[in-house]
Amino acid sequence: MTKINAGRPRAVIFDMDGTLFETDTLLIPVHKRVFETLREEGLYMEETPPVERLLGCLGMLLEDIWKNVMPDSSLEARKRADVLLLQYELEGLAAGEGLLYPHVAETLSELKAGGAKLFVASNGLEDYVKGVAQYRGIASLFDGIYSAGEFGTSSKVDLVAKLLQDHGLVGEPCWMVGDRSSDVEAGRSNGLLTIGCAYAKYGKASELENADIRISDFRELLQLPE
């Protein structure tokens, strides 16, 4: 693990699902549509898995998500689910479905006005991650939106390392903000102060045990000591 550089952050890196975006407000109807279509196409004839199983996998790479959600499915079904999930997510976002967590937009604006560069680092697909930012009106606040789908990284540790390298932030004081153990690992492995979002309910509370700080309201980011 790299030594943490504390102090006023030059940059703040955010996870997307469960951190900025209240994913279940979009994913619950999308999940239903995905499995209805798979069944219509004869690719998955089992009972629809509970949506809680999908929500619990947020933060994983997509191929790992389907292995957990429908472990008895064929590779063809999983590949088709990839396509349908993105299609229905983007359609839902365009139709106004899906909400940011309370106070996200204004807090991001204040952090940016205070001089911090803002980034997203997500294990999701590129079009989805950028789509959330675009359709929810926060894309212009970020200096970069990084996704595993765009860069083909095998872990969030590698994705965050690439982001830091690309923007000359290696060794600089930065924060990593997220709700899953993968976010904490990515931050700590890259020497960042890790902030766990305890308001999200998609993972287990124990996933944030190693975070340096935990917050229960997004606005608390503005109150943290420099």
Give a quick set of tags describing it:
226 residues, Rossmann fold, six-stranded parallel sheet, 42% helix, globular, phosphoglycolate phosphatase activity, hydrolase, PGP-like_dom2
Could you characterize the architecture of this molecule?
- This protein has 226 residues and is an alpha/beta fold.
- The protein has two domains: 137 residues, 3-Layer(aba) Sandwich (Rossmann fold), CATH 3.40.50.1000; 71 residues.
- The strands form two sheets. Strands 5-4-1-6-7-8 form a six-stranded parallel sheet, with helices on both faces. Strands 2-3 form a two-stranded antiparallel ribbon.
- Strand 6, helix 9 and strand 7 form a beta-alpha-beta unit.
- Helix 1 crosses helix 4.
- The mean pLDDT is 93.
Summarize model confidence as the mean pLDDT.
93
Round the Cα radius of gyration to an integer and report it: 17 Å
Percentage of helical residues? 40-55%
Number of helices: 9
Main pleated-sheet profile: 6 strands, parallel
What is the third-level CATH name, the topology of the largest domain? Rossmann fold
Give the structural class.
alpha/beta
Shape: globular
- For the terminal residues, how far apart are their CA atoms? 22 Å
Q: What is the CATH superfamily classification of the largest domain?
A: HAD superfamily/HAD-like
Low-pLDDT windows of residues: none
GO biological process, one term: DNA repair
Organism: Paenibacillus nanensis
Protein name: HAD family hydrolase
GO molecular function: phosphoglycolate phosphatase activity
